[in-house]
Specification:
Distance between the termini: 29 Å
CATH architecture: Orthogonal Bundle
Shape: globular
CATH superfamily: Farnesyl Diphosphate Synthase
Strand content: under 5%
Structural class: mainly alpha
CATH class: Mainly Alpha
Number of domains: 1
Radius of gyration: 20 Å
Order of helices and strands: HHHHEEHHHHHHHHHHHH
Bound molecules: farnesyl diphosphate, magnesium ion
């Protein structure tokens, strides 16, 4: 049924009646469509569900186009990013087109769902701004980081699951919690993979977060675990393009202080909570999605 979501997005793009925009859209790589999966698993395959999933994916795609401009990224999902191939202006406008068309469509799906999703996009934008601010200097402000993570990533998953629950007449708060925990864990694991994976698997350079100024949980925990001299060395690598020795130093220090397992355990706790919740409701597909998330390649 994910196919139906793809077709719906293509239809929405076709309705814009702009050959250039259609050609730009065709060049964008699709992600895992995780938000659509959640929506379809929670609410089934009705036309309203497919439309809701399509709008969420368009909003998510728009946010990534803008994010790549903000992060000055070269690659997205293993291919050259639109800002890098066609310039920032094109990427920004393509993002604007995707998300304004998505909102136009949302307004005729359901006022309540439009409200839930537009509120998440406000959070998304607040989160991206917080991310920019937090990336300006090294910090160990875990609360600020987790709040930003919730806003930037979990809020749209939370809103997707809640919207689907509204469509299906299921308890909103329970599914909100599911989407929220999944979103938090997803981003926490993404932060871990940035350190443990190679660039080929990631589709973008490895150990890139620290270079971009992003002090993710493993870096905070590492800083706290290090002696003064090593702390100074770690800080000297912040925002630096790392050579092989420096990258190895970070990975070795993370290993020595068991940082990855500590960060992974935190993500796992969030996931276990929702696996139990979904199993108690007989939602085995949803608990399986959660299980798959903690089994991503490390
Ligand atoms: C990726 O973060 C970024 C997001 C999940 C959200 C970006 C949100 C905005 C730009 C707000 C504007 C919203 C709209 C709808 C236009 P990341 O840089 O940590 O992850 P990455 O490694 O995938 O780039
Ligand atoms: Mg980015």
């Amino acid at each position: 049924m994910l196919n139906a979501v793809e077709r719906k997005i293509e239809q929405y793009i076709y309705e814009l009646n702009d050959a250039y925009v259609s050609s730009l859209y065709r060049r964008l790589p699709h992600g895992k469509r995780l938000r659509s999966k959640l929506i379809l698993k929670i609410a089934g395959n009705s036309l309203k569900t497919v439309k809701t999933a399509a709008t969420v994916e368009m909003i998510h795609g728009a946010s990534l186009l803008h994010d790549d401009v903000i992060d000055d990224a070269n690659r997205r999902r293993g291919v050259i990013s639109l800002n890098a191939s066609s310039g920032d202006k094109t990427a920004i406008m393509m993002g604007d087109i995707l998300y304004s068309k998505a909102f136009f469509e949302l307004s005729s799906i359901s006022p309540l769902i439009a409200k839930v999703i537009s509120n998440a996009v406000v959070q998304l934008s607040l989160g991206e701004l917080a991310d920019v601010e937090l990336s300006k200097s090294f910090h160990t402000n875990r609360d600020a980081y987790l709040k930003m993570l919730y806003q930037k990533t979990a809020s749209l998953m939370e809103a997707s699951a809640e919207s689907a629950a509204i469509l299906a007449g299921k308890p909103r708060n329970v599914y909100r919690k599911y989407g929220r925990n999944l979103g938090m864990a997803f981003q926490m694991i993404d932060d871990i993979l940035d350190i443990t994976s190679n660039s080929k698997t990631l589709g973008k350079p490895a150990l890139h977060d620290f270079f971009e100024g992003k002090v993710t949980l493993p870096y905070m925990y590492l800083y706290e675990a290090l002696e003064e001299e090593d702390r100074v060395y770690l800080l000297s690598l912040y925002r630096k393009r790392l050579n092989e020795d420096e990258a190895l130093w970070i990975r070795t220090a993370m290993n020595k202080h068991e940082i990855i397992s500590k960060a992974y355990f935190e993500a796992k706790e969030l996931i276990i909570e929702v696996i139990r919740l979904m199993e108690s409701l007989g939602e085995s597909d949803l608990s399986n999605i959660a299980k798959e998330m903690i089994e991503r390649e490390f």
